[in-house]
Write a structure and sequence with these properties.
Number of domains: 2
CATH architecture of the largest domain: 3-Layer(aba) Sandwich
Structural class: alpha/beta
CATH superfamily of the largest domain: Glycogen Phosphorylase B
CATH class of the largest domain: Alpha Beta
CATH topology of the largest domain: Rossmann fold
Strand order of the largest sheet: 1-3-2-4-5-6-7
Number of helices: 17
Number of strands: 13
Amino acid sequence: MQSEVSPSSSVLLVEPFYGGSHKQLIDLLKENVDSCSVFTLPAKKWHWRARTGALYFSQTIPSSQSYRVLFSSSVLNLCELVALRPDLARLKKVLYFHENQLVYPVRRDQDRDFQYGYNQVLSCLVADVVVFNSHFNMDSFLSSIPSFMKKIPDHRPRDLDQLIRPKCVVLNFPLQLPDVSRLLPEHKRLRWTTETSRLDDIITAQQQLSGEEVNHQSGPPTPQTPVSQVKPLHIVWPHRWEHDKNPELFFKTLLRLKDKHLSFHVSVLGETFTDVPDVFQEARCLLDSHIVSWGYLSREDYLEVLCQADVVVSTSNHEFFGVAMLEAVHCGCFPLCPKALVYPEIFPAQYLYSTPEQLCKRLVGFCRRPDVARRHIVTVDTSCFSWSSLKQRFQALLTDECP
């Protein structure tokens, strides 16, 4: 349990699952919003945090007449907290959805616990503002409420989505995008600093990214090709080591590249939690000679690997925003994402694949011509997702003015 209490604080930041993007957001708000008190629980045993966090916080958050705003992620059962603590019910209550439990993937439908989604619906009903990190997150949640409530055997509530919708806004997760120029290899620095003068190269590279395999011409590189361009393609997968990120598809694709005797390097990054899928250990053995980096890294080392990589891949079955993909793009990586979930909201069509076969085909082409990925300037403006761009909207959210 972490708590930072300011005697005259006007903003309560409450986070039952203080890890990953949940931690990043709370830390960012704490650093940039005046008069905050912070109450968190460690990022362990997510299900128990969702079940019992409200009761715990009801006993640990001190009473204060100075509180004006309560901000929490949707892991918290806000309905329980304000019922147990009526003094908090008078605050402006802001609920932030990093994900939603109505469409969060489970391995088997019978594994889905009705209570978690139900708690989120109840929390929305008592919140004053319901904030989603993407339109996909908001739309999938609201559109799923009617069918979700049909699981109740009888005496079902009605029109809950219509009650919640007027409270909803989309406010993207704010990225902290540091200056990584010192970490960039030469070809990325040159690409960024000479962007306008290399228009012909950019057009050529983008024409070659139509989804067709690039014809490979054997032989040494031309004199105009920098040495760095003939290194094997470096593929990075920077996601949580859990089944919903579909690591099985990623590793299956890499093994297909290996079977084709293609040259490539791979870095598998991201956080691990209690249960790590077996496929990670199996893949580490099978891909050992291709591995550059494996496992969770410090922030500095993580950014350095992203800067050295060429292509970043998502194989997710679930994604409501995708911090890691945008961080990798900021570091100069070419993104390959499923044509589903939140990705079409953020990435143009040339970075999306529809089938595992398309993903493999794109990576085969890049392995044969890594310079194509390295010359390409990604047409995604990551700055619009930065804290500097979103700061004023978050600060306004945490005033006690009516939404």
